[in-house]
Amino acid sequence: MIDSAAPHSASLTAMLEALLAVDRVRAGRIVKDSCIPGSPVTCVETLIVPALEEIGRCWEDGTVALSQVYMSGRICEEIVDVMLPAGDPQRKGQPKLAIAVFEDHHTLGKRIVFSVLRAGGYEITDYGHGVMADDLVHMVLRDDPQILLISTLMLPSALRAKEAIARIRNELPKTKVIVGGAPFNFDPSLWQEVGADAMGRTATETLEIVNLFAREMGQ
Amino acid sequence: MTTAMTPMQRTLAAMSFKEPDRVPWFLLCTMHGARELGLPLQEYFSKPEYVARGQLAIRKRYDSDCYYAFISAATEAEAWGGEILYREDGPPNSGSPVIRKSEDIEKIEIPVIEECPGLAKTLRLIELLKKDAKRDIPIISAVVSPFSVPVMQMGFEAYLDLLYTQPDLFKKLMKKNTAFCIRWSNALFDAGATALGYFEPLASPDMIPRDLYRTTGLPLAAEVVKSVRGPMAAHLASGRTVPVINDLAGAGFVGIGVSTNDDMGAVKEACGKKLTILGNLNGVAMRNWTEAEANHIVHDLILKVGHGGGFILSDNHGEIPYQVPDRVLMAISAAVKKNGTYPLDG
What we know:
The structure holds two protein chains of two kinds. By secondary structure, chain A is α/β, with parallel strands linked by helices. Chain A has two domains: 10-83, Methyltransferase, Methionine Synthase (B12-binding Domains), Chain A, domain 1 (Orthogonal Bundle); 92-216, Cobalamin-binding domain (Rossmann fold, 3-Layer(aba) Sandwich). Chain A is built from ten helices and five strands. The longest helix of chain A has 21 residues, at 40-60. The radius of gyration of chain A is 17 Å and the shape is globular. Chain B is an alpha/beta fold. Chain B has a single domain, classed as TIM Barrel (Alpha-Beta Barrel). Chain B is 48% helix and 10% strand. Chain B has a seven-stranded parallel β-sheet, with helices on both faces. In chain B, helix 4 crosses helix 7 and helix 10 (167-191) runs parallel beside helix 12 (217-227). The longest helix of chain B has 25 residues, at 167-191. Chain B is globular, with a radius of gyration of 19 Å. Classes of the chains: A alpha/beta, B alpha/beta. Chain A binds chain B through residues 22, 59, 62, 64-68, 70-71, 103-108, 111, 130, 154-157, 159-160, 182-183, 186-187, 189-190, and chain B through 85, 87, 89-91, 93-96, 151, 155-157, 160, 163-164, 205-209, 212, 238, 240, 243, 260, 282-285, 287-288, 321-323.
């Protein structure tokens, strides 16, 4: 199932197998056995995130299913929540992140991104689903996130996000906007058309973009 | 073959893996009829008479080889007690799910078709279209599979949690959904549908691992197909298909809706003379196509999969976005006539 040219450590290979088999207990045991107590961030960066990145790559090439991406993200999020509880000083508190499903009500994509980012050590404010433009603009102006993630399922919602993004840019020009979801995957130029700064094809690609923006922000 | 066939003759020949006069094309537009009638979408969907007039108008304009008697997948979610949300720039969508906690699976009752106004609208729509179609034009409708409809009944995340962690409850839900799907499919056939799409996005290995699908959704698909009174084509609603084509052929389907992300050479080889290919134009991207791009894409697709029949040109999702303009649909219509006349060149 996993066929990557990149060499894996034994722990990473075992972790991948456990996650794809949706075996929470085994995944937790691998983390416990592989990671140095007291160094949760190292564990996240060397085992958990690489495992999720590999699963994201495999979904793109068609060897892993979305259901496995979702369940893997949930399992890793649970593990990281134990190692790095919310508010833990070792958790990455910055940049300030927020996520919303714009207009649509299908939340799986947002949930996967949410889990993968949290498994990567980030805290994210969840604006929920079915969020309309006025409400999104209001919440963003109130919270001033440095990175805003917008998920859509339907093409009309993706197109209407353009107006909301323009309004946000007008008030908060430094806020980075990352979009994702089916319409963007089926039309690779759509993210530029709606005025976003980037598009995440997968949750792990979104994590890479967030890491990149965080570095650019000096965080 | 040089004499013009009726759309029904053209479609049946293609589905018998013979070359008709030209490649059939199914324009699966649910919304564009509202534009023809000058109606807002919610009003358009409120009466089957409007939708029937819309279908007649768009078939006439674009010379499609079918009527599409399908309003929205959310109609089924509504029948189960869920919420349906209308918008003026896109299809009706399902809102709050009807199953919010595990116990709800025990409680929900299989919809009685005669008591569901949304379902009755679709049945009436088919009856109206039948008057015009007679035996010359296929009337295509669609159902959502028992295995995929829980995405609307309970939300995708909750459904995946159920699928992976609560096998007994999953089976109870599938039993109810399968019973409904068979009844609803037969009602559509009895009303006059020629063939049904079986929307099964979760059959795609993009969504669910093939091994898991083979032990969960696939046996249900086979049960539905053998229990209904007409032909069904599996439609994976933009999901890639190649690894499951043999599985779906074995379940008894006669066709398959394939993805714009599929390798069409591999699709043609896997389908052989078992499944007719339906697809695979990218509905999201096509809104920006030029006429030349539309012609090139249609031509290229026909050359890849048109030989020997077994191919119907269509989009890859089972619904053309409302944002796709008239000029693009006209260009596709012209392209299939220009490039799809048998025998094919190239």
